[in-house]
Amino acid sequence: MDGTTGRSRDASADPALLRTLDAAGLPATGGFRPVSGWVSRAWIGEEHVVRLTADERHRDAYRHEARVIGLLAGSDVPHARRIASGEGPDGPWYVSERLPGRTLHEAWPDASEAERRTMIESLGAALRALHRISTPTDLLPPWLEEALSGGSWPAFHPPVVSAALSQVDAAGRQPGRDPGLLTELAAWIRERLPLFAASPPVLVHGDVHGSNVMVDGGRVSGLIDFAETVAQPADTELDTILRWCARSSEYPPSPRSTSLPEGSLAALPGWLSNAYPELFASADLRDRLNVYDAYVELSLYAHHPGPEVREVSRVRLVRLLEGRNHLDALTW
Prior knowledge:
Blueprint: E1 5-6, H1 15-24, E2 33-36, E3 41-44, E4 48-52, H2 61-72, E5 82-88, E6 91-97, E7 102-103, H3 104-107, H4 113-131, H5 142-148, H6 164-172, H7 179-192, E8 202-204, E9 213-216, E10 219-223, E11 230-232, H8 237-246, H9 268-275, H10 285-303, H11 307-321
Antiparallel strand pairs: 1-2, 2-3, 3-4, 4-6, 5-6, 7-9, 8-11, 9-10
Helix pairs in contact: 4-9, 6-7, 6-10, 10-11
């Protein structure tokens, strides 16, 4: 959700930062620099990372992240320790320890093939540890729970399989949607829902891509940004990962930054499969991944305010029913 990337100027005198550090009981020292992101303002210091959001749609995101971090306490999951969080005049805020290294997105271009493979093998170990954490089976980000209950729709992922048909209904209530396509999609989804009947929910990060993985010394030093973490089948994690691999241009760290070149992540699924084979073990994996894809595109088709985005999703849904999607370009 944050996807932050650094700028060059010092931010230690920023009033919002100073107020947040004071609320957290931390000194206003440490050479903080501002970073840009999709939702949050953030500052990176020598020991701490400070995040702040005024986005009303995600006011509970940090509270949810704090809950998830609590579940990780004492585990083998590499993550940033929570220092403090709360809400102040500038909006909700969250302070965590600074992890060593840089994001996978930043490290990838200059890494050798061997270094890239080692980083992804380390990511596989981190995800396996995450998926073994005991979690409430109904864990959902508050904003996503509200959306599934009929409230506003601020985001379209991670997939929630049990809500896939409700997204067909939501699209059907909007003007200009294709009723024939929605009828076909409803039947297509119903046919595949039994594939998930025996899939226990586990702790799924929900937004694993290059900006939400920290690496240091060729290994993952931590997963970051747990604001979208859910209890879903483990292979739900693959939806964003494989979407990022196939469409890297859609995952820049911030609106003004550069994404990784298309095709530069082609080897990642195979390396991840070797490192964490259980994640890919379902005999029906492609069908399951297709259902996750349908959920994401249906949510955009039903709720996104931009007609051009809705049209892209409509075309992708038509292609999916024809047996084609972004997964065709990937191997593992």
